[in-house]
Design brief:
The chain is 8% helix and 60% strand. The chain contains 1 helix and 11 strands, in the order E-E-E-E-E-E-E-E-E-H-E-E. The strands form 2 sheets. The protein has a 6-stranded antiparallel β-sheet, with no helix packed on it. It is elongated, with a radius of gyration of 28 Å.
Length: 168
Amino acid sequence: DADGDGQFETDIDQIMSTDVIDAELEAFSARLGMVYQPIENVRIGVNYVFPSVINLEETYNTQIRTTFDNGDQTGLEEEPGEFSYQIKRPSRLKGGITFTSADKITVSVSAEGVRYSKSEISDEELEFNEQERSINGVVRSTFNDVINLRGGLEYSINDQFSPRVGYA
């Protein structure tokens, strides 16, 4: 307070905040499927993806650095933190049919059902905790079960090149 009026004035040139997150994830997923060919040019397929769990281990760190107009710098670096949690992924059921004509055109359609309402986030520290119930309540109310429809058309020019267009 150089002039005695109780106010301070500081010129700040730059404030920089850096957040660093390093995550390791571990997961296993299993799929079971089959294809049936009732006649030569038609194939029918189904597959089921079992529910799976992704284990995540995150470490995070925050740094804040302020540079004043005169070149002085000040900063703050927090100690790294750790957070571990699991994401439970839902099952998926998919079925489709393809038809290949004699003139090398293939038409395919499929549908996939995903039970997103069965997704869940869990943390050993939060288990049976109101916060975990609240997080999963938001997940369940936000993620709805869906059916994804897909269709495609392919023309086989030769064994190495087959352009394909599709819509999902």
